[in-house]
Amino acid sequence: MKAYDIVIVGGGPAGLAAAISARESGIESVLILERDKELGGILNQCIHNGFGLHTFKEELTGPEYAGRFIQKVLDMEIEYKLNTMVADISKDRVITAISREEGLTRIKAGAIVLAMGCRERPRGALNIPGYRPAGIFSAGTAQRLVNMEGYMPGREVVILGSGDIGLIMARRMTLEGAKVKVVAELMPYSGGLKRNIVQCLDDFGIPLKLSHTVIDIDGKDRVKGVTIAQVGSDGKPVAGTEEYISCDTLLLSVGLIPENELSRGIGVQISPVTNGPVVNESLETSIDGVFACGNVLHVHDLVDYVSEEAHMAGKCAAAYVQAQKLGNTEEFQGGRAVSLKGENGVRYTVPVFVRPEHMEDTLTVRFRVGNVYKNASVCTYFGDTCISRRKKRVLAPGEMENIVLKKAEIEKYPDLETITIRIEQE
Amino acid sequence: MEKRELTCIGCPLGCAVTVVLENGEIKSVTGNTCKRGDDYARKEVTHPTRIVTSTVTVEGGSAPVVSVKTKEDIPKDKIFDCVRALRGVSVKAPVHMGDVILENAAGTGVDIIATKTVL
């Protein structure tokens, strides 16, 4: 059985950044396992620009952003295997992988970084009645068809859901000559970034109907049209508001789900809110030596934050391996744990707890809010004491927020049990 | 006096920016939280521009298409002209990231370059 110090599952933006940072932290033996035929993950199909503003201070397209990390992986001569699907990971960190070239292989890892990303919520999860005609795609599938395979999925399009991929595809299909008739969004606000609403819908006069959903799909062999209707505050269609829209294609952009089958297989504890692993300040899961980062941990809005988070995961995995080599991984475990809680509009936090003695000088805690808030404050409480209050003009579920915890500050509270992040209106 | 409400696209924050114009002249820009927001708002009300991204077909490569973009931003009203200019354009593999695919797209003076390497 082959052995590596660190094995990274997934060669997308998270996996690439984790591998680079593990190598930079002094670990020679690093292996990336990727199921696709090339590195770069979902960025390869995200041909639009807007990536890397935070990381590189310039606007790159997805392939260009991925390209920079791939080049670094190549320059550093980090090992990777393509067309390789991980089938199973055991608690003692033995990975079973399958590829056409090598068949079934087992690899022993000192530490594992989970970086499998996420997948799209499918039609089956929505309970839209009707037949199963051709012409219904998830927005990401359509994106792959248009941008990588060179196929147009249809000519007259309705998009359900205003997530970023749906918005990006509204523009992309329009530029390729399709007519995008409407984007319907169930919620009273869009789940996508504002810039995408401006650049992908407003620029092309594509209507966005908030509080609307698709209630029926017409067509047996191919989609002929859809019926949309307004939904009330109870989330149910309002009678009398039905509108039939003829189209040959329905794209679904209705949410992303972290892909954690492998994590569950190892026995990693999963958060019911994020559908990703529960992690500590080192981004380590409930299983020793197994770390997680990127969209498999929680769905991000910006790839820059994925790279940042993955950098941290790679560094911590490297520290774990170094401790392992000295025979004292116990040093990595234990320690006083302060739990992190989201309350009053804060849906979740990553990480879920922090051990002050293991944290670096500062720790970025990422979270999302459950509603749109205007002129509200992000408040951090140590126990009952409010230690910071940051005013925000807008908070929206589509945009990830963060606070930075300082180690020195936490150490001033030796009996601290809980840090709470709350949204408070002025 | 004319008031224009914009959403800044300079970064994902998407600040709500208000521009006050008088006789076509910018009187004030408010609501932005950085210099980029000010620049964007001034430009957006006078001469809006965009980066255009698309794909062109590749002959004899490891992938059927390669992604491309305008090297710089172009006037917003030239978006469709640019995309039309790319229709029917095909390149022979290998294509390298940064290669010029089409010079002076739709008379904008801006080249269209590859954003991916296809061997």
TrEMBL record, chain A:
This is NADPH-dependent 2,4-dienoyl-CoA reductase/sulfur reductase-like enzyme. Residues 4-310 form the FAD/NAD(P)-binding domain. The keyword Oxidoreductase applies. PANTHER family: ANAEROBIC GLYCEROL-3-PHOSPHATE DEHYDROGENASE SUBUNIT B (PTHR42949). Pfam families: Pyr_redox_2 (PF07992). It comes from the Bacteria. The keyword Oxidoreductase applies. One of its GO terms (molecular function) is oxidoreductase activity. Keywords: Oxidoreductase. InterPro entries: FAD/NAD-bd_sf, FAD/NAD-binding_dom, Metab_Enz_Cyan_OpOx_G3PDH.
TrEMBL record, chain B:
It comes from Catenibacillus scindens. It comes from the Bacteria. InterPro entries: CPE0013-like_sf (IPR036593), DUF1667 (IPR012460). SUPFAM superfamilies: CPE0013-like (SSF160148), Formate dehydrogenase/DMSO reductase, domains 1-3 (SSF53706). This is CxxC motif-containing protein. Pfam families: DUF1667. PANTHER family: DUF1667 DOMAIN-CONTAINING PROTEIN, MOLYBDOPTERIN OXIDOREDUCTASE, 4FE-4S CLUSTER-BINDING SUBUNIT.
